[in-house]
Design goal:
It contains 17 helices and 2 strands. With 442 residues, the protein is mostly helical. The protein has one domain. It is found in: Cell membrane.
């Protein structure tokens, strides 16, 4: 009963229930093309990947699942994305308000709820932005498929809506067997997908701030400044690194013209941070490109959105702490604002926990398979960060390894919200402090 009264504990239970329901629906005989149903492992993995808006697959979405099965998958990542954005935004309000904890916690957090007006306001904002962005992107994609590729309206509508919903929720699922590789020369198709991914990767607190204050930098919150700046820096660096390292690769950018190279480098600088669509063969990337993808996937996108990873704010808080320590400054901060010690500890906790989980999962997968570490580590980071990119090894992994990836996807998606909120809300003042003593570091 305690879990049911506590929203921080309730969120994992709700997502687990959604995964269980999705698994049951995908195991129905008419969910597959052959009408024979699927295995528990395949259904569980697909459902977890969809609800966690990851995009990793063990079977080809386009050819394995029936129209019913594909519709179930679409609904799962729509529900998962909407639930994540709503829960993360509400918990962010609970944890980040500027009120006295002992005064407002008694009326809101200890009763385990925000006011009805706050919750409704967040819910309506999320719903409005979801419908607006998904509708606009779907309209562009449908028109493009009909006008440039001679699709009939029904097929164009299905593929356009599927990719629009998947992009907005950063799910990375595609209704095509090769993801979006068939559109690698089409900026009109890839551009809206990139835009939808970037928008939701910012997170809803940033969207709300931008809606209220526009481009007036001085009025932005520190969270918005860090998220927007970090996004621009990571996308720009990713673009340069991928363009340079893959420029002459005959299996990726090599055969393309300059315009297509620029387009696909930009596309793949956005996708590893959260989404998982690929217009290039990720398995053919050079080692230096894969290494940079590790970084982009691990950092992820903005908080209180559908992006995964440890989040931009976590990374930049830690980077600021390191720079302040190197520079001999007592306080760490950015944009003329100082970070509190609690935020620094939370960022360090998230970073350490994520690193530990990824390393432990990678070691297990290496022990039960004969795959190279480079690809296994890529798969583990992609699963934890709910990115969905793969070098092509997911279906070849043993069942035990696929189940470990399921755990990573669930913890990486739901666990980051609950852990961060619990850390922010769970600090209790002690009536005493131990004597201080400093061990030798370094």
């Amino acid at each position: 009963m305690g879990a049911l009264r506590n929203p921080v504990r309730l969120i994992p239970l709700l997502f687990a229930a959604a995964i269980a329901l999705g698994t049951a629906l995908l195991m129905l005989p008419f969910a597959t093309v052959d009408g024979n149903g699927t295995t528990l492992t395949t259904a569980l993995f697909t459902s977890t990947s969809a609800v966690a808006v990851t995009g990793l697959i063990v079977v080809d979405t386009a050819t394995y699942w029936s129209p019913f099965g594909k519709l179930v998958i679409l609904l799962l990542f729509q529900i998962g994305g909407f639930g994540i954005m709503t829960a993360a935004t509400i918990f962010g309000l609970m944890a980040g308000r500027g009120f006295g904890l002992r005064d407002r916690m008694a009326t809101e957090v200890e009763r385990n709820r925000l006011s009805g007006g706050d919750a409704r306001s967040v819910l309506m904002l999320v719903l409005k932005i979801t419908l607006l962005v998904e509708g606009l992107v779907a309209a562009i994609l449908v028109a493009r498929l009909m006008l440039a590729y001679d699709y009939g309206f029904r097929d164009a509508l299905w593929h356009g809506v599927f990719h629009s919903v998947s992009a907005f929720n950063n799910a990375g699922f595609s209704s095509y067997s090769d993801s979006v590789m068939g559109f690698q020369h089409d900026g009109v198709f890839l551009g809206p997908i990139m835009l939808a991914v970037v928008i939701t990767a910012l997170g809803f607190p940033v969207m709300q701030d931008l809606r209220a204050n526009g481009l007036r930098w001085r009025k932005w919150t520190l969270h918005t400044k860090i998220t927007v700046t970090g996004t621009l820096v990571l996308v720009a660096l990713g673009f340069v690194v991928i363009l340079a390292s893959e420029w002459s690769n005959p299996d990726t950018l090599g055969p393309m013209g300059v315009g297509a190279k620029l387009l696909n480098a930009a596309f793949h600088s956005v996708m590893p941070r959260t989404a998982g669509f690929n217009s290039l063969d990720v398995g053919a990337f050079n080692s230096e490109t894969l290494l940079w993808n590790y970084v982009l996937m691990f950092i992820g996108g903005g908080s209180a959105g559908t992006a995964g990873g440890i989040k931009i704010t976590t990374f930049f808080v830690l980077a600021a702490v390191v720079l302040s320590e190197v520079g001999g400054r007592r306080d760490a901060g950015l944009f003329q604002r100082r970070f509190g010690a609690g935020i620094e500890r939370q960022a360090l906790t998230v970073f350490f926990a994520a690193s530990t989980l990824i390393i432990a999962a990678s070691m297990f997968i290496l022990a039960v398979s004969d795959l190279p570490m480079e690809r296994v580590l890529f798969e583990a980071i992609s699963a934890f960060s709910t990115v969905g990119l793969s070098t092509g090894i997911t279906a070849d992994l043993p069942v035990s390894a696929q189940l470990v990836l399921c755990v990573l996807m669930f913890v990486g998606r739901v666990g980051t919200i609950t852990v961060a909120t619990a850390l922010a809300l769970g600090a209790e003042p002690r009536p005493f402090r131990h004597p201080e003593e400093n061990p030798i570091v370094g």
